[in-house]
Design a protein that fits this description.
It is a single chain. Helices cover about 35% and strands about 20% of the residues. It has twelve helices and twelve strands. Strands 1, 3, 4, 7, 9, 10, 11 and 12 form an eight-stranded mixed beta sheet that branches. A four-stranded antiparallel beta sheet has the order 5-6-2-8. A hairpin with a 2-residue loop joins strand 3 and strand 4. It starts with 7 loop residues before the first helix and ends with a helix.
């Protein structure tokens, strides 16, 4: 007579529960009804706890929490700590230069200071004001950028004397006219000047750029002040200083910066980021606005290898660029993996008896119309942070393994047991069960 056996999978599962190392599973084959149900509840509760903890670990892994690791600031030998420095004329000065060098009637000339202040400072401008500026530019057959470049005085008339640390350098090699989002300004970048100051200044805990500004001259009576901005690579564009640099004063601007660099080029603390050195979220948002409005910002700076296929916006379409809402477009401008935040404190004092000083910084400067600006970057007060992700696939795997081992006793060998049950024991048991059934049917027929 053929021996009757339980169905294949049930038989294999019962044999597995008797020998497995999983917590409590061997009691599921107990002869006692209460033992089986009691341990079934315990095993289900443990499995639920393990599932909840695994879900928490997975959610934390998706959020990519990061650990801010403080790293030493850059070496004093590194001269990239000085930011980009911009010296710009106030909008009132630009308006007066427009009236002096361009054909403008008296009515439009009286409204021009307010119009340019709104346009250059990216404030809301009425259509009537924009139409007036458009008409002025049309009469003079020039664009807004071309008009700003035409009326802007040469930088060598504004920035007269320059000193990096203790070394006097020619300002022509440091400052040049460039178009910015606030108009045409004199920009400098000390990193472009291949100059090494003496050793004793290289070992100092600060970097100083001193410049002598002639913001008012007899041949430029309208240039009564200058405005300042600084920008580090990776720092978002910031507003100009609300107070212009007044002639006849010494200014000391002390800067410190905080740099946060994500070590993972694909992730940021809250979401993904772009690690390209040339990427800027500000430029990305500008491109979104331009594509939505169908024209280019007239104060746009063309970047290297950038193709511009759109026409320049007329003045009457500026409000489209200024009032653009990102929710209206499908553009997704991710943040940069490098973030730089700088803080500045500005102190001023009256310039007295400059004719009696031997400092070359005051050379050829008029005391009543000039300004001395000292920009000091405090390296000791600046910090560089590196964002290191605390969760990786390895840490996630180890955490999941610890959870399963704690609640279910699942380890590497237990996982092999389960795989052996699914792919070996169950198929063999099913096949044997089919053979037993076939033999039993044959015996019954005979």
């Amino acid at each position: 007579m053929t021996e009757l056996r339980p169905p294949g999978c049930c038989y294999a599962a019962r044999e597995f529960s008797k020998t497995t190392t999983l917590h409590g599973f061997k009691y599921l084959s107990s002869k006692s009804y209460c033992d089986r149900w009691g341990w079934l509840v315990c095993c289900c509760a443990s499995a639920c706890c393990a599932g909840v903890l695994c879900a928490v670990l997975w959610a934390r892994f998706l959020q990519v929490p990061a650990l801010l690791t403080l790293r030493e600031t850059k070496s004093p030998m590194d001269y990239m700590t000085m930011p980009l420095v911009g010296i710009c004329p106030p909008t009132e000065t630009v308006a007066q230069l427009f009236r002096q060098q361009m054909v403008i009637n008296e009515t439009d000339g009286s409204r021009l200071p307010e119009i340019l202040d709104h346009v250059l400072r990216r404030k809301y401008t009425t259509m009537d004001q924009l139409s007036t500026l458009e008409e002025v530019l049309r009469k003079n057959n020039v664009s807004l950028a071309g008009a700003l470049e035409r009326v802007m005085p040469p930088c060598n008339k504004i920035v007269r004397n320059c000193r990096w640390q203790s070394v006097t350098i020619p300002c022509e090699s440091l400052f040049e006219q460039q178009l910015t989002q606030w108009g045409v300004c004199c920009l400098s970048n000390i990193s472009a000047v291949n100059l090494k100051p003496p050793l004793y200044t290289r070992l100092a805990f600060s970097r100083t750029l001193s410049i002598g500004l002639q913001c008012s001259q007899p041949d430029m009576p309208v240039l009564t002040g200058c405005e300042l901005f600084t920008k580090y690579e990776g720092e978002g564009w910031v507003d100009l200083l609300s107070t212009a640099l007044t002639p006849g004063h010494n200014y000391v601007a002390q800067l410190s910066f905080t740099s946060v660099v994500d070590s993972d080029p694909d992730k940021l603390v809250d979401e993904t980021c772009i690690a390209s050195e040339t990427y800027s979220r500000t430029v990305c948002l500008l491109r979104c606005r331009e594509n939505f409005c169908g024209c280019l910002d007239p104060l746009r700076i063309k970047h290297e290898n950038e193709k511009l296929n759109l026409p320049v916006c007329s003045m009457t379409k500026l409000n489209c660029l200024r009032s653009f809402n990102n929710s209206k477009s499908t553009c997704r401008c991710l943040p940069s993996c490098k973030k730089v935040i700088s803080t500045m404190s500005l102190e001023s004092s009256k310039m007295i008896s400059t004719s009696k000083t031997y400092d070359n910084l005051y050379l050829r400067l008029d005391e009543s119309s000039s300004t001395i600006l000292n920009i000091i970057v405090r390296i000791k007060g600046s910090k560089i942070f590196v964002v290191n992700p605390t969760e990786t696939w390895i840490t996630l795997l180890s955490s999941l393994g610890g959870v399963f081992n704690m609640f279910l006793g699942v380890g590497l060998f237990s996982a092999l047991e389960v795989l052996f049950l699914i792919f070996v024991r169950c198929p063999i048991a099913i096949r044997k069960s089919s053979e037993v059934t076939l033999h039993r049917d044959r015996d019954a027929v005979s």
